[in-house]
Write a structure and sequence with these properties.
The structure is a homodimer of 203-residue chains.
Chain A: E1 7-11, H1 18-25, E2 31-33, E3 37-38, E4 53-54, H2 57-65, E5 69-75, E6 78-83, H3 84-92, E7 96-100, H4 103-112, E8 117-122, H5 126-135, H6 141-155, E9 163-166, H7 170-184, H8 192-202
Helix pairs in contact in A: 1-7, 5-6
């Protein structure tokens, strides 16, 4: 079979538990987390190539021009993006690359890289989402309302996704994502090479 | 979530081990085997509605005209077909209906019922296929050559399938099919209703 890894995009409203699910997933050695490139200054303890690839604004803009980023965005005056080279390198090594990213970025990536699997991770229901956000002691009410508004916008894009995983119990959500990845690896579309081998074998 | 079952079509060359895989699969109570309708005489011990639905040729032809069969074929002067009513009934009860069928029939069903999952079950390689057929003491060389020719024709249609499952070890093939079914149940396309509920919830 084709041993190239899959690009797995995990997205969904904040409060859906993406961080927890992703950190569980990558305990499995067949997964690798995508590393972003940023123009912001490295903070203490942050290592280039591990936490981020730290690059200058000029270089970043050149990568954008040359189409070398799967997606990018500006945030507080700094640029952040997903470099194609790193993702491609991991995929070639047979790793499934996980990209945890907000919805707009996820759709950008899918546009650029059609083979990516888009997974929408969601809490069991919307009231649950609010209560999860409220339980984060650090959030102000204003911030919660802002996040809820954003969640509404994001959920409207749900039909652009390939899969919906309901995160009720973390272990089950992780198990579901594993099943999706294993199932996708058996997809006929991903095995044009295998099909060709078969066809040569029977001619 | 949507609790309707999925129609799972298992096809592939003879010698791929379809029968063994299917009989293992249906030990799981979430699966039901599709029952065919036929115009041939019931043999001793065959029960109407269990082994087949036995119907007259007139009635069968009417069902064809009314588009009530997912597929049908003639074999040795008798008609065989897959009645929609039975499949639909099982799906509504939440059962995943398995249809073990030859390739041409499988493609007919997919044409009629787009939501069906088409799984191509194949031996690990073509030489293996020949040796499996040769190990069936009952087969003449002529029959083996005929089956190999047919396998070649069938493999040429493999790109019409959704998934390819390589049947090296039966338990693993069964496990793979289970994963495909569970994964498909999380497909966003199958959850238009869930998406609508979400959207209503956030409006």
């Amino acid at each position: 079979m084709n041993n190239k890894g899959l690009l797995v995009i995990i997205s969904g409203p904040s409060g859906a538990g993406k961080g927890t699910v992703v950190s569980e997933l990558i305990k499995n050695k067949s997964y690798a987390l995508s590393t972003s490139i940023t123009t912001r200054q490295a903070r203490e303890g942050e290592i280039d190539g591990i936490h981020y690839f730290f690059r200058g604004t000029e270089e970043f803009k050149k990568m954008v021009e040359k189409n070398e980023l799967l997606e990018y965005a500006e945030f507080c005056g700094n640029y952040y993006g997903t470099p194609m080279f790193y993702v491609e390198e991991q995929l070639q090594q047979g790793k499934n690359v996980i990209l945890e990213i907000e919805v707009q970025g996820a759709l950008q990536v899918k546009e650029r890289y059609k083979e990516a699997i888009l997974i929408f991770l969601t809490p069991p229901n919307i009231s649950e989402l609010r209560s999860r956000l409220e339980n984060r002691a650090t959030e102000t009410l204003e911030k919660i309302n802002m996040r809820m508004k954003r969640a509404r916008e994001e959920i409207k894009l749900i039909d652009k996704y390939d899969y919906i995983v309901i995160n009720k119990i973390v272990e089950e959500a992780v198990d579901s994502i594993n099943k999706i990845v294993e199932s996708e690896k058996m997809s006929a579309q991903r095995h044009i090479d295998l099909i060709n081998t078969f066809l040569e074998g029977v001619e």
